[in-house]
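Support case: user asked for a sample of complex input and structure output to validate their parser. Sending the pair below.
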Amino acid sequence: MRANKWGMANAEWGMNGVRLSRHAMACEFEIIAIGEDRAALRDIVELALDEVEKLEERLSCFRPTSEVSYINSEATARPVIASPDLFRILSLAKQVWSDTAGALDVTSGPLVGLWRKAEKTGTEPDEQAIAAVLEKVGMGRVLLDDATHAVQFESEGISINLGSIGKGYAVGKAASILSEYGVECALVSGGRSSVIGMGPGPDGDGWRVGIRHPSKLDGRVDEILLRDQAMSTSGGPAQLDADVEERFEHIIDPTTGMQARSEAASVSVIAPDAALSDALATAFYLRGREFAERYCSEHEGVRAIFSYECAPGD
Amino acid sequence: MNGEIDGITRRDFLKGSVATAAAIGLGSVGVFTHASAEMIGPNDTINAAMIGIGSQGGMLLERAVKVPNVKFVACCDIQPSHLKHALDVAKDAEGYDDYKRLLERKDVQAIVCAVPIGMHAQIAVDALRAGKHVFSEKMMAYTIEDAKHMARVARQTGLKLQIGHQRRSNPNYQHAYKMIQDGLLGKVTHVRAQWNRNASWRRPVPKDSTEELTNWRLYRKSSQGLMAELGSHQIDVVNWVVGEVPCSVVGIGGLDYYKDGRDINDNVQVVYQYPNGVKFTYQSICTNQYDGATEEIMGTKGTMVLSEGPCMFYREPKSDEEVWESMAHKDSSGGKSGIVLDASKSPRLAKAAADGTAIAEVAKLKKDAYTLELEDFFLSIRDGHEPFCSPKVGLETCVAAIKANDAMDAKGWLEIPAEMYKI
């Protein structure tokens, strides 16, 4: 029997449910939902997957007609009213940006572009070039008006790329639709980066998902039970997946504009909300274990698992 | 909200609206005591309202609130969850569960309406009579008489009425249309189109709704089925590029797979004939999504495959190569190599740059067709131009879709007299 990407075979959750997947956001979204009425369950799961597709249409900065592209092209000149979904994502992104000293910054796209070009040419950008690009980066320059949901950029050249939070948000949104229609037991995943386990799972104690080995694509270092919790992973083999568009050996610190090397091979974050776990995984991967420990001690319900490459014999 | 509106239940509201709209359609237009086409300047703020904020309406509202100098001051839906979402999108708006009360507001100048098809005519006519410009979602109406009535009231009030066939506003479709006019395809003789999906089309019913309100598309008493909800978009494209309207139709359809209580067809296959001889073959099915939704415009010199995704051009092997072909972006699928029709790469854009109109052209390419059709609507209110999808266009599409359903019901060939298309 074919196992899914979390190592779960059909036998583990039985045939008392549906399992559907759809390609969206450059990965495979999958939903396993358990319930008696399979026909009704299928319609609900399809609706949740439709919503993921709609979110992709809105959130992708690679689609010229998406809402994010619209805001990127208009919000310097005037305040633009964002959809409730986009405003929620931007508000959370700004909160995490603030809480992680700028480690998660959805405006850091120009820096990625700069270093991508450097990799191609083999020439590192000088301080002046980095400083010039940093002028176009900074979530602090994105003004969010809670009263009207208007978004405005404070300076020229700012643009939003939700690659580090959008997939997690979509997983959470799909889960909320399942819940809205009475589905209490389901596993929703977006590629290998974010997963949410709803309800008691097939065995009654939660959904058992694997934490992947940092360097072996099919290996796992641990298992964890998710019950009404989300988990997201940054680094490790998730970065080697064909469906991950940006593959860098190094990560970029949005506050300095410089490349950095994570101390961990991968970081998994468990949180009540998938958008939050997705955003924090990116931030913790950059900021490291001490920072994550401090954050987790101050934020209830958030845990982090750091995986390290060990030298042979360690 | 307790399920009753002005003393009638939601179920009665839906049923009643269809019947009432049909009755109105038979009568004359009447006197418009409230109608007034006031002048709105290019920089004046238009006060707008949204009626019907389900899946489609919510999508439209999220785009409409972004249009500069348009302020949504009111929203109406009979489902509390829909209204709650609307008021989260349009934060300054006041909520209503009765559209007639909303229409009493003198400060509302324009209505965007996305309700079930059976209510299109009644709400559009009431809004026009109350002096509001109206954008009404497709298909124009549940009956041909209703559609004509909407068009007549719009004409008599002098107010704008636009129907939501958004492909007319899609830059790639407009680009393709211009190239067909320029003769790229030679003489267009045949069209094939389909909208194939592999899904039940049944939506789960939210806690605050009913089967009839949520799945109205699945029942004949409230829906014209696949031909209206999907096919009408593509009929509109074909009418546009062919430049005529169908004069006859033959079809076969059935309810053969999703026998779950619905009574509309889950598969439709029809062939239209146009006065100039063009044959248009159309299919929409719910059990296989091969080829998705495309329109293949076939001419003596080439074929265009149009869609809301990529649009392609395939030159006929015997046809001369176009002078620009060697520079064009090419792609291949299914073993066929073709030219990608991309409005942003068009030589027309270079010409627009030379003419000084490129900024508007380029800006247009960054917006989706729904945003552009709404911008077209609000601009038409300001400058008086006829929107891309006028009442005439909406009526023509509506007639063709409904006659296809009639042909499938009659299991025969139906003529569509030219006067049927007249407002």
